[in-house]
Structures are given as C-alpha cells and as structure tokens.
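Hey, I'm writing a tutorial for new members on how sequence and structure tokens pair up, and I'd like a real worked example in the thread rather than a made-up one. If someone can provide the structure for the chain below, I'll link this post from the tutorial.
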Amino acid sequence: MSISLNITHGATAPQVSVVIPMYNVAKYITRCISSVLLQSFSDFEIICVDDGCTDNTLELLAAFTDPRITLIRQANRGLAGARNSGINQAKGEYIALLDSDDFWHKDKLKMHVAHLNNNLDVGISYCPSLFVDEDDNPLGIGQFPKLKNITQRDIFCRNPIGNGSAPVIRRAMLTDYCSSLENNSAGGVDKEADSLSRVEYFNEQLKQSEDIELWTRLCLNSAWKFEGIAQPLTYYRVNENGLSSNLEAQFTSWKTAMGFNQQQHPKLFEHYYELAKAYQYRYFARRSIQSGDSKQAWFYIKEALKTNSSILLQEPGRTVNTLLCAALIKIMPVQFYKSIEQIAMASIGKFNQLAKG
C-alpha cells in the first residue's frame, strides 16, 4: 500500500497549514485527522509527516481522500524533526501544530485565524486545553494558562502555550527569525536533508522540551507577542503509561533545552532559573500524582519548595493543592485516592460547564 505525495494546491496558497507528526499512532490518527476536516474554517492544508511508522497508521490515513491532505515520508527523526519537515513544506500564512494523539474543537482554526488577523503584533496564538483519557473521555481538568501581557519571564518559567497542539504560529514570526538561525546553536539550516536547505526551527538535538526551547528562543530574540484566547479549543490526551515515565530524563532534557539560551541571556537565567526549576519540579509532582506514584510525587513537591518557596506566594492555590494531594496519596491506598480524585474531577467538570452557562 502506498500513498502519493500531494504537493500542489492551485494558484492560491491555503491560509493555514496544519502540521501533524506521526509515529505509530494508529489508535489516534483517525480522530485527529477528522477533527481537522470537521473545522468550521476550511481554508487549510494538512501536512502529515510519517516519521518512520511501522504500524498501520498509513493505512488508516489512506482512508481519507480529501485533497487538502499531504503526506511526507521520512526516516525517523523524532518529534522536532517531523515538525520541522512539515513546517518546511507548509505554504500557509499561519502554521498550526497538532500532535497526532490529540484533537481539536471544531472552531479551533476559525478563532485563532480571527485572533491573528485582528492582532497583527501577535506571532503565536494559543488557547487553554482540556484533558481527555485514552478513550476521548474528558477528565474534568485541563491547562488554563495566562493569556495576555505575556513576558519573557512567563515563557521561561511557565510555558503558557502548554502543549504542542495548542499554538497557531504566524509564518512571518518564523521567517523574520530565520536569518539568525544559522548562527544559533539551537537551530540552523540542514543542507544534507533531501539535498535541499531545510530550516531547523525546533532543535532536533532535543527529544523532549523542544517546544519550550523554541518558545523561549523566539520570545528572547524577536519582537512578536505571544497571546492566548480564552476558549479551550484543544483536547490533550493524557496517557497513563507515560505520566511519570523517566521524569529524571525529562528534567535533564529541560535543563539542556534551557541551556541553549543561557549564554545569550545570562541576566534572565540569573533572575529566574531557580524559579523556573521550582515550577518544573511542581509539574513533575503533579504528573506523579496522576500516575499514582506517591514516593515520586512527594519527592518532587519537596524539591520544588526547597528550590524556590516563592511559588507558594505566586501561585498559592495550585502549589498548596499539589502539596496536599502528594501528602494524601502518600498516606492513602492508591485506589482509594484515585476514587476520590475521580469524584473531584467530575465535580469540577460539571462546575465548569455550569459556569459557562
């Protein structure tokens, strides 16, 4: 079975290019692609990047006959490399990233396009995300980041974009910054790939934290704004098997990612690195709680407070909640705690629906 590479789009380029990296995602790809094809905004192309799939992902993709879908096939380069390949092929004014295990609300593109069209100084538009389980069921929780007046500190310490399926990027933001990539240790031009110059936007040296490295690099070196819209339009899948897997390796990757920008911006690191590290520890504590690892959860929340206790003052609700949950899961049987957690999340979800009217 083969899928032809469609690279023609007529006289007019689409306004949005949707880039979807794929690596053995047969379980999710149909839901993912369908959520794009069902968008209320239709002027888009979908660039699916086969990053060396060995399962039946491509067979499921072949069931879609929409001419807006393009397939790029390559040997495995990792998530950063797959995204870069898609962006290099993209023709749209805006580039929307979508990880293949996530999916979108039907008005996702419409609302981000309007946001970018009406705010010409915004380079990256993003939104809150709702968490779903392996079967697309809402978990009643999500990421609800700061949306306005985003500073370098916000990007460095808190990553308001949140995940790789939330942002829609103005192509001009990447193009304007492209000229400096060749001299930047975290990005560059790969002249070996396909015998053509291929811009490396996401740092392909990183297997994790490649997104926050790029957001940090862009906010430190360009004048474009980061800004969010209030509606949750991204559905982010929480995979139980990966919630707490090798968090130490993730932390090492995060430190490496941050280090790429340290030499050029030493004052930012001097002022905020310990705070950013504390937030990262707290994030790992929350992931450990979700996966039921009480020992790991308690370790990471203690490390967070020891590293920079000011997170208690800056975000008291979330920090205290994490501390209490880590303490409860430490003293309760995991299954009992999980039952309480599920009831609490269901209540929060119903409350949020009522609050929306």
